[in-house]
Amino acid sequence: MTSASLTQRQVAFSLEPIFPAEILAEIAGHLGDQFPNDKEGRKRKRDEMRTLATVSRTMCAIARTHIFEEIYIPSGIQLHHLANLFRDNPRLGAVVRSVECTFNEDTLDTEDIAEFFKLPKVMSLSAFWFRNWRRPGSGLSMFRIHALLNLYLSGSNGPPSLKTLHLVSVPGLHYEMFLLSQTLESLSLAHCSHAHHHVPNTEPNLKLKSLSISCTVIPFAFLQRCPNIEELNVTNQRIIFTEDDTHLTSQMQTDQPALPSLKRLHIRLWCYSEHTSPSYDSHYPQFPILMENSPALEDLSLLILGTQGPSLWYPNHRHLKNLTIDWSTCHPQSTTVLFEPQIEVLSGLNLPYLETISMSVSVETLIMDFDDEMLLKESIIRNARTFARLIGDRDGDLFPSLKTSSLVFDLIRSGPRVYEDVEMAYPTEDLKRELELIFNNLEVSEQITFLVEVTVRDK
């Protein structure tokens, strides 16, 4: 960010405005509200405010409250200039609401970083730790990054204000710093590590509403201390509650559900070997535990890799409203089992309040010879209709409240018959039309909007 550039150029001010500063501030605020609240919109807003800052001294002061609402802490000479700007303008720190930074030795091993330990009203902090392995660490860097986190989480500069925290690759974290926060509502940890996996027996954290975990251990005890979590996102090779997830069922048994307020659960797991695991639930034993401990669940989103799908039948999930499944096979599967795993998962459900089903299915089939082509054709005719009836709930038995059902189906043919460029008995366009005919002619209830997109291709 080039925030410090305001001090590096001559600004020509016009005569002071005749309107009170309060009116000008309100006008600037309305102008700022016209920009979208996304990365590009915020950039355009800062550019517009920089233009306003050149109008007069009053407008410069007003524009700064918008320009410095979000700051990026740079390194090197830019960090020095930005720190000097905050030193020379003590009131400037009070307007900062969002801080983004890349922590490394160059940033943290300098006294200039101290200026950013004094921002009293920060509501959002996003920090990425980058270790420069070409130079020895001083130990001061880790001390300062933990000190900074503790400062904003505990509110040492005044009443705590931090609501959103996003950390990437930060080592040596302590769970208690998050549990003891009185304001933190959203926590995101990616590729982070913890000093230890003991979770202190603190009072429940009633503020945390959203938790996102990527390649980071999250103890089940931590979830138990945060009963008001409404959204949980897990992106990982697997769900990790402890370093050694053994005897999970007995360890996690509780009288009360650990996540009584959880409404949205999004699971994206990508490390699954069908050769070593008999089923999805046995490979990810933490998944059933999360499901069993979230009776208020309304929105479930899953990424499934492999032919084995999870069991989604849980008596306590009758209030589920939205189900999203992105399902891809890891290896080519037999032509005779097309749609069978998806049929097995859906046929076991009975969700009276489900309003939306969204499924994306990508299947690769192995075509060795002409017989495999015939079997694939038969499998499409036999199973596609059954699957379509389920996802469209033609009879209204499984999902009586269903309003929207959508399917994106991608069929990939591979194998010697495809590689050798032999003329196929059923070209891709013929199979595509066959599938579209089955899905588009499906009889569904008038209250259901049924959307289908089909792709057939040779690999």
How would you briefly describe this protein structure?
Helices cover 31% and strands 19% of the residues.
Question: What can you tell me about this protein's structure?
Answer:
This protein is of the alpha/beta class and 459 residues long. Among the domains are: 19-68; 321-458, no CATH class. It is built from 15 helices and 13 strands. A 13-stranded parallel beta sheet has the order 1-2-3-4-5-6-7-8-9-10-11-12-13. Helix 7 links the parallel strand 4 and strand 5. The longest helix is centred in the C-terminal third of the chain and has 23 residues, at 370-392. The protein is elongated and about 80 Å long. The two termini are 45 Å apart.
List the topology elements.
Elements: H1 21-33, H2 39-52, H3 57-67, E1 70-73, H4 76-88, E2 98-103, H5 105-108, E3 124-129, H6 140-154, E4 164-168, H7 175-179, E5 186-190, E6 210-214, H8 220-224, E7 231-236, H9 248-252, E8 264-269, H10 280-283, H11 286-292, E9 299-305, E10 322-328, H12 340-347, E11 356-366, H13 370-392, E12 404-414, H14 416-419, H15 428-440, E13 449-458
Parallel strand pairs: 1-2, 2-3, 3-4, 4-5, 5-6, 6-7, 7-8, 8-9, 9-10, 10-11, 11-12, 12-13
Helix pairs in contact: 1-3, 2-3, 12-13, 13-15
